[in-house]
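Structure ticket #2291
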Amino acid sequence: MKEMELKYGCNPNQKPSKVFMAEGGLPFTVLCGKPGYINLLDALNGWQLVKELKAATGIPAATSFKHVSPAGAAVGLPLSDTLKKIYFVDDSIEMTPLANAYARARGADRMSSFGDFIALSDVCDKATAQLIAKEVSDGVIAPGYTDEALTILEGKRNGNYNVIQIDPEYTPAPIEHKDVFGVTFEQGRNELKIDAELLSNVVTENKEMTAEQKRDLMIALITLKYTQSNSVCYVKDGQAIGIGAGQQSRIHCTRLAGNKADIWWLRQAPQVLGLQFVDGIKRADRDNAIDVYISDEYMDVLADGVWEKTFKVKPAVFTKEEQKEWLEKNTDVALGSDAFFPFGDNIERAKKSGVTVIAQPGGSIRDDNVIETCNKYGMAMSFTGIRLFHH
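Resolution: structure written out below.
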């Protein structure tokens, strides 16, 4: 198929709308549903991300996209019992590496992932489809689907769930175009290969980076390559745990992503794991309640006459002192940035979320201050020399 008509563009008033290829056929097939304009933007950006994650790490990868930026991205490392609990993974599902990757990608920021578009690096298997079936999602793109997986996904949304199969061998033209206000922009595609060699220029006193830390830094940088700029990404144990996208200020980006990383870690605290929810509560309501419970607005779910709608037993307040004590236990977090850090304040904020290794382009007139701040905390930092803006 050379072109496909869409219902409308970014908004319902933007008609007509379609996707097409100037030469050759579209590199994907819609197996179920009718994807929209934004769905396809998420799908095609997400596919590039997971394809590169798999190539860089050798491990199946997944991402959860919302509004043309990833809410989560991960490779398929095994899940601990704690992660299974906070990601709501049913023990009846026989988890696979691909399923682990999606559980991690979806679970990192469940609030942002609500209604996501999923991208998978490998053929979607039954276990991954079972996870997807339980979540509120707009669609999925993958290089293929097992018969069992496709049957499960075709039953989602009364048969209207978007299921897209991408040609894994498709290679786009080296020059890409974009129209804005009637003006056509042209540039070479960002074909930069992100690998461990890109991390070789370690500029701090601490030169040590383990293989696992380098893996996490590669995950951060590949994720940033497909995140709306400015952006930074915190990664731990093979998955993004905090992504800050589209901020005009680098420090605000670092704070936003750091706050998300902190929420991910707080969800693993005993106070949160011990919450007793009422029977039959929906996943979204449970996610919202947890998010409020660990925020400054905790009384919105703990007030008398309110908590009974969510909890079987009224929880104790998770105090700021208790939260700080728990957050201090989070360590060995990797941080990537799509452009240089202009000041050491970014490093100070990163330290509060357990960051020990960093990858960024370098090139600021205040590089010395940034390096000095890293040295103060014994961090190892690579200068990649490569900017990763994405718009």
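Closing remark: Residues 167 and 332 are 37 Å apart (CA to CA).
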